[in-house]
Write a structure and sequence with these properties.
Blueprint: H1 2-35, H2 44-50, H3 54-59, H4 66-78, E1 82-83, E2 88-89, H5 92-101, H6 114-117, H7 125-128
Antiparallel strand pairs: 1-2
Length: 146
């Protein structure tokens, strides 16, 4: 009886591992269908083009004045892209749910943690993307538009 139970236990463990592998493959396929292929950076230039202020922010890590931080965060909290649970500029979860429900496309945001981004010499994503009526005004962005 013990040999039978041990063999059954091994079969159940193998079945559980196979089930997990199938679920992983299903989740990966669903992600590819909903979000498309992940962007790949062929060259360093492609990566730098995605974040034009990357090196400027790294060179100047000093923080901006508290008044400016508060002004930026107040504008962020009123923005329709703001995702309050994560305090981020948009959310990948919101985009996945939008695609599942087939809702109209909304600006996704930069997905940055806004209390951190507001303290750095950075620009608002919406300002750089030239989106009307969204984002920080030119006066409180750190750099001219790209």
């Amino acid at each position: 009886m013990q040999k039978f139970l041990a063999a059954a236990s091994r079969r159940l463990q193998l079945a559980a591992v196979l089930m997990l592998a199938l679920l992983w493959e299903l989740a990966s396929a669903l992600k590819r269908i909903l979000l498309g292929p992940a962007p790949r950076f062929q060259k360093l230039q492609d990566l730098l083009a995605q974040s034009p202020h990357l090196f400027a922010a790294l060179k100047a890590p000093q923080e901006v004045p508290d008044e400016l931080v508060q002004a930026r965060l107040e504008i962020c909290r009123q923005c329709p892209v703001f995702f309050a649970p994560l305090q981020s500029c948009g959310s990948p979860l919101r985009e996945i749910m939008r695609r599942i429900r087939r809702l109209p496309k909304l600006p996704v945001g930069c997905l940055c943690h806004l209390p951190t981004k507001a303290r750095l010499h950075e620009n608002c994503w919406a300002y750089d993307e030239r989106l009307p009526d969204l984002g920080w005004p030119a006066a409180i962005n750190s750099f001219p538009r790209a």
